[in-house]
Each structure stands twice: as structure tokens, then as C-alpha cells.
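B., you asked whether I could sanity-check this one before it goes into the benchmark set. Here's the sequence:
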Amino acid sequence: MTQYKPARLFTSASQKSFSPTIKNTPPLPIIDWSLVGQTAPKLISSSGSSLPVADAVVITWAEAEWAAMEHVFCTSASTMSYASRNTSSWSGWTKYSEGLPSGAPSDWTYWGEWRLVQIGGSTVLLFKSNTHLDWPGQPYLSDLIKLLIKDVKPGLILSIGTAGGAETADHVGTVRAVSAGTLYEQNVTPSSWPDYKNSWKATDTVLDNANFSKLLFPIPTTASDLESLCTQFNAYYKTDYSLSDLDPDDLNSGDPLPKVSDQTGGGTSLLTTPTFVVGTTSGQYQSYVCIEMDDAIIGEVCEAAGVAFGFVRNISDPVQNASLPSTVQGNWGSTIYDTYGIYTSYNGALAAWAMLAAKV
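And here's what the prediction gave me:
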């Protein structure tokens, strides 16, 4: 199987071989948990074919997201290199393949990988999913969430990771948390798209700590790197766009301090799409906080089972220029995602940790 990328991004065969580079690639930092009166998550040694019981599940999806999860929840005492964004395995994680349904694609051989940690007095199952809405498909993703609920018995399932921008002012690296997801359905009126929501509300005592901002990592965008990405993009795709064409309103430049917005506990929703859909400067999806590829299915299963759920998503590719062709929008979004996704995912994972730590 080829490396998984969020399906909101246009992934033609040619695009998969485009590997943009930048010069400013600092490592993810050592985390000083004492700044917010906390300690690092504690690793719990565990393995086996069955999943352990835990108080909460935190699930993520792509490799850059997994690297950020590994750093925040498992290895925060040392730095993590930029190259780690493409790491496909981490020590201490266990593959989970119990109860795979018959008739599944032959190259889909496991649900995902897991690791157990303790945050305060709570046990948390970290899960890197190999099961997605676009591959191997919705029935299998639903089955995975049902298995997690049945075997782990969590009180809460959090999905974390990258997302495409929908709100037209969100810069790369913005983090938005909600407790509702809307499922995009092609050829259906948007007002009829199904919503899945719950009343789970994150506790923000750690997020609101005056020192929490010191733990956040500003996305290391530079004007020279973005210009270089534009040059590389044009050379590879044989186009002639300016950076202002590809980067409307300078949204690909990170804020000096990444914005973290907790919108849980209400009806504010993200949009889950099973096909290529991208937010643009025209604002057609700005009633949603972001666009991603799995979460509404989690919400559907959790809502039916009475399990609390939330989604903590970071904007790895902001809204695109509405005047550009859709393939260009997707290819540029993928370029920004590939380049900065590990950094945007770090802040998202840190925000999710803060929500869990505040429960103790």
C-alpha cells in the first residue's frame, strides 16, 4: 500500500512523487511540563493481540500526525527531528489485527497500532489507525470504532490530526476542537447532511494556564521557504503561479503564536468528506471549523453507543484560492501539508493532551 495521505488532498500518481524541501526545519522541542504544573505522560508497558481497557482513546491517522503523537505522549524528554515526519514505525507500539472481517482488501492486514500511557490518574490508549473512510472504507472504520468501544471500554474517544481549512481567516497551524461532525454526502443538499454531536465539553484549566502558550511551537514558516516552495511547485507541475496566487491572504504563514480554539460542548461542527473536497476563499464551507476525512464516522458510532467523543484538528493546509483549478488547489494543499504537517500536528496533540490532563 502507498503511504496514506488525507483524502481531502488531491493525490494523483504524479503528485505522490513530488517531495518539496525547505531550509528552516527545527526539531520538535523538549517539553517542560512543569511550566503548566504537570508531568509527562507515563508509558505503560503492555502488548498482546487484545486491546487493554483504558479511560480514553486518542486516535490519529497519518505518519506526520503519528510522529507528533509519539513526541507529545511518549518521548517528550528529547527533541524529535523534522525527518521523523515520515517514520512508519515506532518502538513500543503493537499492531492490532484481531477480528479482521472477511472480504476486506487483501492489502489491508491490520486495524492499526496502539500504545498505552497514563496521564495523571487516567489510562489512555493511543491508536494510530490503519483504517480510514477512504480505505478500506466506511464499514471497516465503523467496525474499528465499535471494537474500540467494546474492548477498551473508554469513557471518551478523541480523534486528533491534520485538516484542511474551512474558515477563511485560519492560518496554517490553527487548532480547533469540536464535539460534532457532519458527513458530506455527494449530490445531497447540505442541509440534509447527517450531523453527529454530543455534549462532551473539554475542561480548559490547562489550556487556560498562563504558561501553556510557552509549550506551543510556532509553525516555522519563512518568506524564503514559501517562495522556494512556490518555485519548486511550478517547476514540478509546469505552472507559473505566484506565491500570492497559491497562498491567498498569506494564510500559509503561521501565526506568531498558534491559535487554539476549544469549541466543544456545542453544535459547532467539522466536515467529514469521503471524496476530494477543499475549502476555498469563497467561503462555501466556512460554517464548519475544518474539513477532514474520518471523524463524523466516529461520531456516528459513538453517538449510537452513548460514548463521549471529540475532535481536535489542526489546520495543516488552509483554504485555497477559489479562482484556481481544483487540481492546483489540492496539489498546493498537499505541498503545505507535506512540509509543515508535523509542526501543525504537534500543537494539536499538545492541545489534546491538555484536555486530558485537565480531567485529572
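One thing to flag: The chain is about 25% helix and 20% strand. Otherwise nothing jumped out at me.
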